Structure formats: structure tokens, C-alpha cells
Automatic annotation (TrEMBL):
Cellular localization per UniProt: Cell membrane; Membrane
Protein name per its UniProtKB record: Transport permease protein
Organism of origin: Streptomyces demainii
Taxonomy of the source species: Bacteria, Bacillati, Actinomycetota, Actinomycetes, Kitasatosporales
Keyword Cell membrane: yes
Pfam family, one: ABC2_membrane
Iron recorded as keyword: no
Annotated membrane topology: Multi-pass membrane protein
Residue ranges constituting the ABC transmembrane type-2 domain according to the UniProt record: 25-261
PROSITE patterns documented for this protein: ABC_TM2 (PS51012)
Transmembrane segments: 27-47, 59-81, 102-128, 140-164, 171-191, 236-254
Amino acid sequence: MTTYVLSDALALAGRHMRHLKRAPQRILSITLMPIMFVFLFGYLFGSSMNVPEGDYHEYIMAGIFTQMMLAGVINTGVGVAEDLSNGLVDRFRSLPMGRGSVLLGRTLSDLVLNAISCVAMLSVGLLIGWRIHGGPLKALAGFGLLLLLGYATAWLGSLIGLLLRHPQAVNSVAMVITMPLTFLSATFYPAENLPGWLRPVAEWNPVSTLTTGMRELWGNPTGNAPDPAFPLRHPVLSSLIMVVALLVVVVPLANRAYERAAAR
């Protein structure tokens, strides 16, 4: 059964990737948007930002990487909702497919798109002066953690899409979730730059932990205060635990929601 699920999931992932030929704007959205954010934050805001023990160009890149992975909640959620509304799920239900292969194929194809987005951001980041100083193994570990985050957010987006079932509703709810997580964190500026009552919120924000973990692995400035919160003192381990816990919770919930949606 596992073999059937994997083979069906890979076939569906290939189907999603082939559809990019008919919708090339999706490739543009995952490549041009990161480039715009790199230049926007790196040059327009960089001149007014101060980062302890480092350059803002090297500080900001991990934040932009994280932001683009969080955008996967919207992209995947809207895609799943569209599949429900246009009858694609009904056609899948009539086929002898392995259980769980539909969502697995969708999330695997989105993982490939996340990797393409990372390559685009990596290229532009190198152009503006960003460098990785942590060595090749830590560099790969940082990108591995980043893609694991993207995979987890794809499953979260699948769950939201299956529960809401309407692309517009998915987009609105996902924005409500991702925007506060992104901007009330240490993604684009050090947490110590925030007012006193907001600083603990930013320090305990899981997005701050994930971003700080990648900065630590890449040897970039973390921007931490002298005595940061516990997750920021151990960002890599804390990030790994949080992402794995998110997958453990969201994957079975999404599969259960898909079975209910397909049975309607």
C-alpha cells in the first residue's frame, strides 16, 4: 500500500508540475516576488536598520527566506480549494488511487516550487552581498530546515483549503495567520528594536526561532539581545522540534479533512 501511495503521489506531483506550462505566472510569482523583497528590504530599508554585530544585508536574507516559505500556506491552500471547487477531487475519488496520495502529491510539488524559489533568492542574495559563513554542512542544514518549514506550511495550507473550500476565504484566513507571525517577529528587524511590551511576543514567536536558527547555521548575525528568550538561545533545536510537531499534528488532520471532503 505504501508503494502505491508513493507512486500515485509522484504521478500527481508530476501532473502539478506539468501544469506550470499552462500557468507560467506561478513560476514568476515564486521567483520575482523573492527578488522584489530582497531589493525592497535590502536597499530601501537597509540604510535605516541597525543590526548588532553585523550587516543588515546578511541579517535580512533568512527573514525573506522564511517569509516565502510561509507564503506556501496561501499558495497550497488556494490550490486545494480550487481542486475542490472545480470537481477535480471528485474525479480522483473515482480512480483506484492510494489513500493520502492526493495531498502528498500536492505538497511534494509545492516542495519543488519552494526549492526553485530558494535558488532564485540565493542568487539575488549573493548579488547584494549576502554570504554564508557557517561552512557547507551548516549551509545545507539551514536550507534543509527551510524546506522542511515550507513542506509543513504546505500541509497547513492543505488543511485550511479543505476546511474552508473557497479560494477567497482561504486567502483571507491565511493572510490573517501569516501576516502577524511574520511582522511580529525578528524576521525583518531585531526583537530588541520593538517596544517593551511587544519584545516578548517577538522573541517567543516561532517564526523568530526559525529565522534565528537559519541565521545561526549560516553564520549570519542573529540580532539577539544579550539575554534572549529560551527558543532564541537554542534556535536550531527548537525550530526542528516545532516544525516536526506541526507536521505530526497537521498531516493526519489534513488527510482526515480530505476524506470528509471527498465523501461529500
